[in-house]
Amino acid sequence: MESNFLYKILKSLNEKEFRDFGKFINSPFHNNRSEICRFYDAIKKSYPEFKSDEIQNEKLFKKIYPGKKFSGVLYRKIMSLTSNLALEYLNIDSFKNNKLDFNVKLLYLLYDRNLSDAFRKKSVQIEKLLDESFHHAEYYELRFKYTSKLNGYLSDKVNIPDYQKEIDEFIEEFIVIIFHLYHRLLVTQNIVNVSFNLRFYDSVFEFLKSFDFSNNTLISLYYNLVNLTKTQDEKYFYELIKVQEKFYKKLTPLYLYNVFVTLADFSMNKISKGDIKYKKIYFDLTKKYFKDFKTKIETGYLNPVLFSSIVRNAASLKEFEWVESFISAYSVQLEPDQIEESLNYAYADVEFSKGNFEKSLEYIYKVNPVKVSMKINSKKIQIMNFFELGYHIELNSLLDSFKHFFHREKSIGETLRKRNLPFIKYISELNHFIIKDDVEGVELLFKKIDKTEYFVQKEWIKRKITEFLNKKKKNTV
Asked: What does 362-398 look like in DSSP terms, one character per residue?
């Protein structure tokens, strides 16, 4: 167990980090046990895979303790000590790389030791770092901590501290953090059937009426993120795009990703309600975010549902060259155990949009999705392919199983049911009339669907009805 834990940590290190970890454990300041150094030397050639035949316990033990009989207790102790050192290395390396945090903490030490000259020099460096840093929640916290300590230093020297700046920065930090929490709670409420108490919500928005936050990066960003998530008002969608463009250079890659996901979710929601103009808007946003196919996903792995929606939307717009480049570039950024399934799902969408229905079915038959939303979409692709191929008798059985799935699956939310059940109902009726060759029934169905509020694939069903009726008219001429 301990060895698995250690190797997972070591696999997470890139080549430079792995080499630096070797230097770290060879430093007497951090490690005074030579057997850990010998252990590192014994495994370094096995990085990054650490194949089981290369890291066998007994084999490694001989290299660590030449001439000694194998001891499981001693070996586990080496694993435990090395794991602790690996975690210590990650902590120190992360701290050193966060220059602003490192320097603000150092400033506090200089203050506590009454090193005035060093304090003044360090404060000049921090002012420059604040000017150059990305704006994230921690930035506001560190900016406030710096100003607070600077005021403490100035008051000790009988100067007039800038207490107004200190309280203003504290208020900004508070608003940024509480907006971040509001956004997280609202997103969760939209996904799961749960309600949260958004304390201070109305008070914060009331305060912002008298506060000019137009030049504050994260307050401007979160103000629109929170309002868009809560109200689904498209004015906040366009404001969010403007804010992102205005503060683009001050936003971390993670914030840019989160903004893109929010804009994508809103666009998909609009498309699902029949606002087709958002297909092009969504595609343009996607192209801009994944510029030149070099954007790195900052959350570790690309969400498979987001990946699929991007592919489906681009394919529906016949942007085949772009979507195939996207699949090639970003399928590798999915979780390894999801790549094959996501690829099959993606190519099923692409081939369907190309009109290659048999190929689309070949791909979708390889898919066995776990997420309910993807189960529903894979069934719909099968149904639409069957219809396009004229498999009307076989389609009855598929539709019947889909109906049972909706009645049986309790985890399907009300929104998903409302959007998809009309699709099942109307494609079933259309298939029934086509089998009976009931032209009048199809005509009446078209009028009925046309008056129905938007549901998933409404336009596709109307198009299939029109094609059927045109074909019938042509054959009677």
From this structure: HHHTT----SHHHHHHHHHHHHHHHHHTT-HHHHHHH
Counting Cβ atoms within 10 Å, is residue 213 exposed (0-12), middle (13-18) or buried (19+)? middle
Q: Which two tokens stand for residue 60?
A: 């490694």
Rounded Cα–Cα distance for residues 428 and 419 (Å):
16
Q: Which two tokens stand for residue 119?
A: 């304090």
Specify the residue for token string 């970890």: 21
pLDDT digits (tens, 9 = 90+) for 86-110: 999 999 999 888 899 999 999 999 9
pLDDT for 238-274, tens place per residue?
Answer: 999 999 999 999 999 889 998 999 999 999 989 888 8
- The pTM assigned to this predicted structure is 0.76
Number of Cα atoms under 13 Å in the Cβ half of residue 81: 17
Q: What angle separates helix 392-408 from helix 372-388, to the nearest 10 degrees?
A: 160
Q: Are 346 and 354 in contact (CB under 8 A)?
A: no
Q: Where are the beta strands (DSSP E) in 115-195?
A: none
- CA-to-CA distance for 436 and 433, rounded, in angstroms? 5
